[in-house]
């Protein structure tokens, strides 16, 4: 324990120092990354300056020319200038011209955003005293580097005719280029529902601010998050940069070597201590546990406890064997009780339903013919009313006796389904053979001559039977329903007869 505590303290100290050094390096790399992005903004700003002092554009804002729009403000012209979109605004910030290079799926986020909101960027005029600046905007969850400026003539003179806004998307292509140039892995993550707060623009010289960086240390790398602020001062996205934790990996490697030596010593001592303990006791305990687990997992309480000897563990194993034997006997009795009708000794409805499902599954796999017989004692309620319930119970026992005498095959299953209703499952018989068995049962029961004054004109107890042969389309429900319908038909036709479904 002391060795392990010492290792933990060493690991904590080395990780603290590694984490501090890694954060310093990661912040420096983020600074380099933001300077690279700043350089991309300067490229956009350089393109802007050449357009903002273009006399033809200056004149176009004074008197818009369709020919100039068609020839100079095209998608091809933007592509050549390496920008993704362009907006021309009047002095009040109202859009007068828009041009945008469609994305891979034909999308034009800036155009769609401007048209949907019904306004452009009226705050540009108040953003900068010089009427120019650079920063970022967001349209349809996409972030772009944007620069804007007043439009003047080629000499930089004359009254401004409005504003020129050009931008370049911070898309996957640009991220890949910057990553290849800097060797830094990073991504741009959207910040949804950013509130709009109009204030001074994020100018080129103020892109990187150390106090805004969030540092999240993870197992294999450090993630730095830096907010991208729009021209209007609200956070619209984050730059997320991953920096590998090389110092932590070196510290882990050194720590792992020390740890391996210490653990080897601990394990050696542990193995020697275990060998000094009673190995025979451990093995016998494991065997007892495994045998008990097998007995419990079998759900049938089968299996034996084989641990032997003359000590306390052997005594425990002996009592366990006796307990398992008692539980096995009681489980079997409970199973028999749960599947046997107490009055008649026949299988009950639960056992009947299990055999019925098994019979249908066997028919589906092997096309073994089978049939179901349902039967009711005729006018049994009158019999109970006339002779009393004890006599009725005795009559039901006579029904069970009749079924046992008529059904000799092990494949045949008679059962009491409830009240005076009985059922028989026959496997390996055709419909005609099942009908013959049902007729034999009917005749045998009538031949018992059980007096029943309420069943005229015979004056003896009889039964009605319905027979249904299993078909390929049958389920337990449909087969039972067809046999029950046949039984009902037998009753409707005068009782004491067999009817085929």
Q: How would you briefly describe this protein structure?
A:
With 501 residues, the protein is of the alpha+beta class. The protein has three domains: 33-244, PAS domain (Beta-Lactamase), CATH 3.30.450; 279-338; 349-500, Alpha-Beta Plaits (2-Layer Sandwich).
Question: What do you see in this structure?
Answer:
The chain is an alpha+beta fold and about 500 residues long. It has three domains: about 35-245, Beta-Lactamase; about 280-340; about 350-500, 2-Layer Sandwich (Alpha-Beta Plaits), CATH 3.30.70. Helix content is about 50%, strand content about 20%. It is built from 15 helices and 14 strands. The chain has helices at about 1-50, 55-60, 65-70, 75-80, 110-115, 125, 170-180, 245-275, 280-295, 310-340, 350-365, 380-385, 390-405, 430-445, 475-490; strands at about 85-90, 95-100, 135-140, 140-150, 165-170, 185-190, 215, 220-230, 235-245, 370-375, 415-420, 420-425, 465-470, 500. Strands 2-1-5-4-3 form a five-stranded antiparallel beta sheet. Strands 11-12-10-13-14 form a five-stranded mixed beta sheet, sandwiched between helices. α12 (about 380-385) crosses α13. The chain is elongated and about 130 Å long. It comes from Rhodoferax fermentans.
Largest sheet: 5 strands, antiparallel
* Annotation, overall tally of beta strands: 14
Question: Kindly state the mean pLDDT as a whole number?
Answer: 82
Sheet with the most strands: spatial strand order = 2-1-5-4-3
CATH architecture of the largest domain: 2-Layer Sandwich
Shape verdict = elongated
Helix content: 40-55%
Catalytic activity: 2 GTP = 3',3'-c-di-GMP + 2 diphosphate
Enzyme class: transferase
Keywords: Membrane, Transmembrane, Transmembrane helix
Protein name: diguanylate cyclase
